[in-house]
Fold these 3 entries.
Entry 1:
Amino acid sequence: MDWHQNKHGKWICAVLDDSSREILSCGEYESRSSKASIELLDEAFEKYKHIKPIREVITDRGAEFYATKRDKQDHADHCFENYCEEKGIKQLLCKYNHPQTNGKIEKWFDTYERHRYEFDSLEDFIEWYNEINPHMSLDWKNLETPEKAFWKRSRSYILGNFFKMIENKERGEKI
């Protein structure tokens, strides 16, 4: 997850699935904010928690994600950090001046810059990126898109959730 200022001066924030490269949530804003960061991460969390809740999020040390003033035990009161803790999401911080740590989202920003304005809306661009445009780092021979990769890699979780639901029903538990 990261922020990027586009060539038109707008800020874009996106939550990208590390494995499939699918954009789980995204928004364009006039300025960066912790509030927008939380809303986007929460949107992705809520949308996919029935499959598997988000366990980790990689961010930089930007003020939207991380408090710069910390106590001696490295604790701070920051709304994004608090949100992650509340949801059980481990926040992994990028190394200083090392954009490769968050390289997949940085590469996505390049794609955004090259293709976003070929589309009428951000939603249309995200649909093209996730569902139509094959991704070279996935199964290129089969022209796999991030959407196909996401669902292919989620099958075992979905099947496991189904079996848990059946077991709970057999025990008379509420589904």
Entry 2:
Amino acid sequence: MIRLKTKEEIEIMKEGGRRLKEVVRELMPTIRAGMTTNQVDKKAEELIKRNGGEPSFKRVKDFFWSTCLTVNEQIVHTPPSEKVLRDGDILTVDIGMFYQGFNTDYADTISIGSLKSNVAGFLEAGKKTLELAINEVVAGKRIGNISETIEKGITSAGYSIIHELTGHGVGRELHEDPIVPGYLSKPIDRTLKIKPGLCIAVEVIYSMGKGEMEHEPDNNWSIRTKDRSLSACFEHTVAVLDTKTVILT
């Protein structure tokens, strides 16, 4: 069931997103080589609480951390640990805030220290594709317009979409309907029409390699690329209004 939000609810989400942006603005410059992902997570939780929210991810059953912190070939859902970040790693920080009854969700992939030229191009493709995809989140268009834009942006740059992992609705629950795939699996006119009140997390989840995934051994959450190629994720929560679309995060 798709839960369209009222203007009043979107205002609350807008404030929650503003606070989450402040968390990210303070958190990202502190991340450096030599830190453990547990240390990053601890700082993120401290900032979320300082900004008047709760960690959305801790509200997910059996997930006990405030962030998902994936490194290199890890794709999504990797819990923080004593893993040490090293120069040249790429790190995806996936983070959500629960504020006054509503969630917002955000992800960014960054390089730790040295940035190789091929990695710079890889990350830039994801950032640019997310921008283009958000431009398709317009009342009257369809979810398929978003999916097609993500697929074209990533594959034309020579990379692969992770088909099993998608964007999603956001609101009182962190994950709501509809799903927002990163590829087009059926004609656009058979996908959901975008209406005012729709709030979704648009996610670009992709890899340098073939795009096949597997669950990491001895970890109930972490998913990695099957061929161990680098993976990245860029995500914003957006809200559709009558005449415009607002990036909440």
Entry 3:
Amino acid sequence: MDSEAIGTTRCGQCAGTGKTDDETACPVCEGTGLVLAFKQAPALDTPPARPSRRRRFVRYYTDLPLRLRVQGERELAGRCVVIAEGGLAAVLPEPIAAGAVVTLELPVPTHPTVLRAWAVVRNQIGLRHGFEFLSLTDPERVAIRTFCSRLMIQSERTTIPNA
């Protein structure tokens, strides 16, 4: 087992809220809602996570810096908060309409360089956006899959306030 931290992920104890049921600071994440994600091989006796009936890919909490360029327009910086093999969710400083095609750049820790990919905005609620990848190569998809295997799965019933 390797103990090298590869980034942060939402706290599993408080589901990223930073608080316990009695509204005190979560003892695991100390009220931040985030914990370190560590590099480790998945246990051999644990079956791989399966996507839900509604989703093609399992979603995972993360916190990665993100840059994107709206085709023919502007460049924005934001945060990738959920990632999957098929796309990601990000919080941006301004809304981008669903259907817009963008170029995404993000540092996936298991990829040797900054990952650059075309994506389409599939949904937008406030400043939170859902992107579907359009142009991943096989090595990029494997890098995302490897990174995701080390993160906490996003429950379909879990909601994150202000995300």
